[in-house]
Specification:
10 strands; 167 residues; metal-binding; EC 3.1.4.-; alpha/beta; 4 helices; 20% helix; single chain; Calcineurin-like_PHP_lpxH; hydrolase activity; Purple Acid Phosphatase, chain A, domain 2
Length: 167
Amino acid sequence: MRLLLVSDTHLPARARALPSQVWDEAEAADVVVHAGDWVDVALLDELEERSKRLIGVYGNNDGPALRARLPEIARADLDGVRLAVIHETGAKQGREQRCDAQFPDTDVLVFGHSHIPWDTTTPAGLRLLNPGSPTDRRRQPYCTYQTASISHGRLTDVELRQLPLRG
């Protein structure tokens, strides 16, 4: 099972559209995970249409139309991997302990908000993934997203993908 992980797309405020590389990944993925801050409901509509399966949550910049269609926390069992998605996990300091306490029955937690890519495993074994942003790099050197695979009940091949700088 092939996954695409994105967050903080902020369309159309930060970009007019998702980069074509991200659309190619979305169409190739078995599951697209979006960790919030869509901003425009049109992206949700298009991702639903172009994805085989979409798991998403709303973020702090998402208004009533997105909040009506998306949960704050999404959970799914993907071939034996217990996945949760949330937009914000709080400050970097203490993140692992907070997430272990809040998501005890989860194998992988995808989150966003900071626009800073993140890939760690907590003391309890919870994998924390933040794909960064494909449209708003803020102080990061590149816009980013992540891809991963699930095989035989295990998350594998997690890769941070960098997008070319727009200029």
